[in-house]
Design a protein that fits this description.
Layout: H1 9-17, E1 36-37, E2 43-50, H2 53-69, E3 73-80, H3 82-94, E4 101-104, H4 109-114, H5 122-126, E5 144-145, E6 148-149, E7 152-153, E8 155-156, E9 159-164, H6 165-171, H7 181-195, H8 207-216, H9 231-246, H10 253-258, E10 272-276, H11 280-286, E11 291-294, E12 312-315, H12 322-334, H13 336-342, E13 348-349, H14 352-357, H15 363-378, H16 391-406, H17 412-428
Parallel strand pairs: 2-3, 2-4
Antiparallel strand pairs: 1-2, 4-12, 5-6, 7-12, 8-13, 9-10, 9-11
Organism: Actinospica acidiphila
Pfam families: SBP_bac_1
Protein name: Extracellular solute-binding protein
């Protein structure tokens, strides 16, 4: 699940799970919203996304390029910070006037499909307006839900351990593919003892890390219809995290809260932090050190449980211009010039054509590309965990309750009970 450049990770995760209740969305499938047409045959479509100003500047350049190559299609744009984006989207959608095409993420596919909001793009693929070949590492399947094509990936990322390289060097730690959670615990202690810094920023609310741990043990955070783990499983995870804070292996959550929106890693409260690989750019701009990507620890020395996540482009079922929308999506994911403009802003390009068109020269982005190439060559990538309707609300609850636990506002047993109660409600609605 990758987010906007410059958006703080915990804010992103919290926003991703905020309740997005919308009543009556997509009650009909008639074309009653979206773009417009003109007498000379020119069509205007509306495109919305979230992100920072830098992303907006890059996307606007790609739109200029698209309009030059498709003079009969005009694109009206709108972008917001992550939380504001979904607020505005829901307001527009509930009023029957959503954007024709918009940035999306896997946690929202079933939610909006259930509300009859998303266009199945398979018909446009059959008509030749959208190509679904040429994607990297099976990403063409990423936006398929229940046989429907509801999103097309624009980039990829995967979970990683971002490390402060000088700190790890002083501690004498060299993480390698296949290292175990026992190795990780030992590494955290060495960072603490040899550098005076906590080993990691903390693992309380990192839902996607817990998902990988569960997958390593034959489970997953979500199944098609609900949660894929038990209260006993979560009790063990949060108990270990709580002990890690008390022993100084993980950063003090109160100090982490005080320095937000800066991360604990770049603020030098911790020697590492689990997050998405392409967020390394954020630490480099925020901190004073040199940062690198380390492999995810494993249970058995082999299986990481990892998958590639992605931002996607989805289309509104209400659009009056499905052909033009499909052509726009096709351009954004396949055109090589788009890749040279966007770089890794939305992750490593999803298609081979764009991946080969943009080869980064700076150390940070080169490291991101190398990391994902290592995952592919090592054969550790697996199909993504299902995200049922309500997954976004569960994600927000996991983050919020995990933070409350870390700050001492809840006991482990109370936190586990609260999470399962909220998730049961979210997944049954």
């Amino acid at each position: 699940m990758q987010q906007g450049k410059g958006v703080e990770r915990r804010t992103v995760l919290k926003a991703a799970g905020a309740s997005l209740a919308v009543t009556g969305l997509g009650a009909t499938a008639t074309a009653c919203g979206g773009g417009s047409g003109s007498g000379d045959g020119t069509v205007t479509i509306r495109y919305a996304w979230w992100g920072a100003e830098d992303r907006a500047q890059r996307i606007n350049k790609t739109i200029d390029l698209f309009e030059k190559k498709h003079p009969k299609i005009k694109v009206k744009t709108d972008f917001q910070p992550y939380t504001d984006f979904w607020k505005k989207f829901n307001t527009q959608a509930s009023g029957g006037n959503p954007p024709d095409v918009f940035q999306n993420a896997v946690g929202f596919l079933r939610k909006y499909d259930a509300k009859n909001m998303l266009l199945d793009l398979h018909e446009q693929v059959k008509a030749g307006n959208l190509r679904m070949e040429g994607f990297r590492a099976g990403l063409e399947k990423f936006g398929e839900i229940d046989g429907k094509l509801l999103g097309v990936p624009v980039g990829s990322n995967s979970m990683a351990l971002v490390i402060d390289k000088p700190v790890y060097a002083r501690a004498g730690i060299t993480p390698e593919m296949g290292w175990t959670w026992d190795d990780f615990d030992e590494a955290m202690a060495r960072v603490r003892d040899r550098t005076g810094r906590a080993g990691d920023s903390g693992m309380y609310g990192v839902m996607y890390l817990y998902d990988l741990y569960l997958r390593q043990n034959g489970k997953a955070f979500f199944t098609e219809g609900g949660l894929g783990f038990t209260e006993a499983d979560l009790t063990r995870w949060w108990t270990k995290a709580e002990k890690g804070v008390r022993s100084g292996l993980f950063a003090d959550p109160k100090k982490v809260a005080q320095i937000k929106p800066k991360s604990a890693l770049s603020a030098e409260l911790a020697g590492s932090e689990f997050t998405w690989d392409n967020f390394t750019v954020r630490y480099t701009s925020e901190g004073k050190s040199e940062y690198g990507l380390a492999p995810i620890p494993t249970t058995d020395g082999k299986r990481t449980g990892q998958y590639l996540g992605s931002l996607m482009l989805s289309a509104s079922r209400r659009t009056q211009h499905p052909v033009e929308v499909a052509q726009f999506i096709d351009f954004m994911v396949h055109d090589p010039e788009v890749a040279t403009i966007m770089g890794y802003d939305r992750g490593v390009p999803a298609t081979t054509a764009q991946y080969e068109a943009y080869r980064p020269t700076d150390p940070v982005n080169k490291a991101i590309a190398a990391y994902e190439e290592t995952l592919v060559s090592a054969g550790v990538l697996e199909p993504i965990t299902p995200h049922p309707n309500g997954a976004d609300i569960c994600e927000a609850a996991f983050l919020r309750i995990g933070e409350e636990l870390g700050l001492g506002k809840r006991s482990v047993s109370d936190a586990v009970e609260q999470f399962f109660n909220e998730s049961k409600t979210a997944l049954s609605s």
